[in-house]
Amino acid sequence: MKDFPIPVVAVGPGSQPDEDEALQYLPLPASMMTFALPVLNEEADPALMAAACSVVEQLRDKMEAMPLGSPTIPVIELQEMDTEVVRLLNQTMGEGEVSISVRGSSAYRIQETVFAGVWRLHEFAADGRLVRDAIMACAIPPIVTQWAREDVSLDCTMPHKTPGIMNALSVLTEIVGKARAYKAGDAAHVVNLTLLPMSPEDMECLPLTLGVGAVTILSRGYGNCRITSTRLPNVWWVQYFNSMDTLILNTLEVSDVPEVAQASREDYEDSIERLGEWLQVMQEPERLDI
């Protein structure tokens, strides 16, 4: 995934604590997501394992034929597949760093696997029925950007300045202007609220004005990154929390989808190689060091 953005810290005269003051440090992260090959299910039926390996092999071959950024993305539909094969795929492919929830006329639950850029997508009808089950390989599933743009509007009504509001109106003016000028593929524009003097009234005004969109993304690594779409197109809340769930970086970002949630080209290519290792382990268990 992408590098963790570190806010600018002032240095120089007047920026250092007095010698008598105790230095304050942010708590260190408790854990970090790392890649490990799937655990071999030695009790799995050989026929089910062969079917699961066939799916992974198809996926790996499609990813090799369709590099990241290709017009067509690799997709394998699982809805009609044997439920035991799907269960084995879920068990062995595991869960990665990014989880996505999409709320609309249909509901979606999207989970990255341990292979970065390889996603499990479930679509549910309004009555809760599973209507689609798929594996796809891409930076982020297209349904995320599609639904983030549903029921949004550039007609943002600016609030009146009320007592306590300091910088909310200037932030909103900047964000709305950038959103109106934004074109797909443009570089992200980020407003770091952590570095601005923001009053409690400012922090109440911003979400009330921008609203809450259909997409929520959680990226786990060092602590958590929570990303939420707004009712303003291409505008996202991006908030970083340390391992004690303390907010340490709070930003508004104008982009298609924040990069921290997306798999990079290096991730994608690495996953192709790791899927080959997965197949080697599953097809030839005698190679495992017991």
Automatic annotation (TrEMBL):
Coiled-coil ranges from the UniProt annotation: none
Any one Pfam family match given in the protein's UniProt record, by short name: HupH_C
InterPro entries noted in UniProt: HupH_C_sf, HupH_Hydgase_express_prot_C
Domain HupH hydrogenase expression protein C-terminal, first and last residues per copy: 51-152, 165-281
Stated name of the protein: HupH hydrogenase expression protein C-terminal domain-containing protein
